[in-house]
Amino acid sequence: MTSTVPNAVQHTEAAAPPITMFGPDFPYAYDDFLAHPAGLGQIPATEHGQEVAVIGGGLSGIIAAYELMKMGLKPVVYEADQIGGRLRTVGFDGCDPSLTAEMGAMRFPPSSTALQHYIDLVGLETRPFPNPLSPATPSTVVDLKGESHYAETIDDLPQVYRDVAEAWNACLEEGADFPDMNRALRERDVPRIREIWARLVERLDNQTFYGFLCQSDAFRSFRHREIFGQVGFGTGGWDTDFPNSILEILRVVYTEADDHHRGIVGGSQQLPLRLWDREPQKIVHWPLGTSLSSLHDGEPRGAVTRLTRTAGNRITVTDATGDIRTFRAAVFTGQSWLLLSKIDCDDTLFPIDHWTAMERTHYMESSKLFVPVDRPFWLDKDEITGRDTMSMTLTDRMTRGTYLLDEGPDGPAVICLSYTWCDDSLKWLPLSPKERMEVMLKSLGEIYPNVDIRSHIIGNPVTVSWENEPWFMGAFKANLPGHYRYQRRLFTHFMQDKLPADKRGLFLAGDDISWTAGWAEGAVQTALNAVWGVMHQFGGATDATNPGPGDVFDEIAPVELPED
Asked: What is the pLDDT of residues 334-347, one digit of tens each?
């Protein structure tokens, strides 16, 4: 796609090998691991049927449970709300059931290769997502400081936007070794990746995204930095990320996580739901026809209210019904703040340094609001200008990002009136869905004064503020400067041989302990790490021809910064 502000990845040669989101911190080929005919490993037959608690029924939890079931273990899934987590697809009351809104994850890059394995496994279809100025987007309007610009490609925008694009490319090339790292990631040149990244982590761990821009001669202009924050690249403005660590941003651009996005036809929540019902053909111990659903009589167990360690280094789980079960191993996939607030936990569950890391986790807020409309009226042409009646819209007004979603010209469609993060999201928090809609329609009416959006709305709005969701308390983790050490502790927690015996057996997973938080790929990768950890805990092993993430850990472990 053509990004709003294209990043340096567009300078790579077309014939270069595809990139993957295995990333610079832990360059392990999860896609190769999943594709290998030997499978992910096996456990001794004496352990078959052993129960393992999987806490959280989001993507990470369902994948962990699915793979553990295939190995012959019996996952016991606990879910406080609904299967899917932040893969949440909802409908509109009284409207065609084909009309859906993605309240959480809605766009996925091709570099999410481990995620794609499961999308293909359950037979889901994807299609290009209509990001700003992408080929899937007929037109984009950039509206800043009351001035609107209509564009079908970046070349249609004023020169200042191309200047900002060039400044971002220069900033990456000068300050982050972008061409070298991009090439190393494409070639999966692990020694070179580690060499470049170790140097950058040491130099940039304490730097904010905004500070990184300000240090570049290319971004000496405040106006250029302002436009970059409001319009950004790929998916829109990134000023809400300005306080975050620049390492978080580099992981995104290195792995093309913000490029060439695709959406899942019918909604992303289908992925965990189909895995829940899937009956794998290659399965150990359990008879053919076994699924996670059948092992749970159709429904996961409820919310976990208490987690404790008990004699014999066991993990004891209490759920909302008061039921108490004890396990030799458990996987926790919820957002880590739940362990500090919603769930009563023993301090002995984790080493103190891991508790500190969880306490320091920084979550980003995020809000969306969708409305159903009678048809994709935005495809109508203005009789005077010949332009689309309405466009995908980036603005500094309250709505910030507006996305137009349709299945073709002849049926009903959906508008994501607003998608915001952080402070912009908090502005919506006290408002009801209808109040939010009114503010958004007012803002869009100032950009499109001759378009009566309201006349096309055929149902009530649906909305979410993830910071207000009790089992999430935020949309996704984003490290602040100085948080690299904390992230390393959480990501590497699946390697437990060096932990005291009384600190083993409980494994963390989920996108917020991954290096790519906010992307479903991180949920998949950490789930596979946890699966390897549980397998190891039960005395199992991978096939020699398909080493798992723990088998090669010492060769590719994340950079370790000094603690003093």
From this structure: 999 999 999 999 99
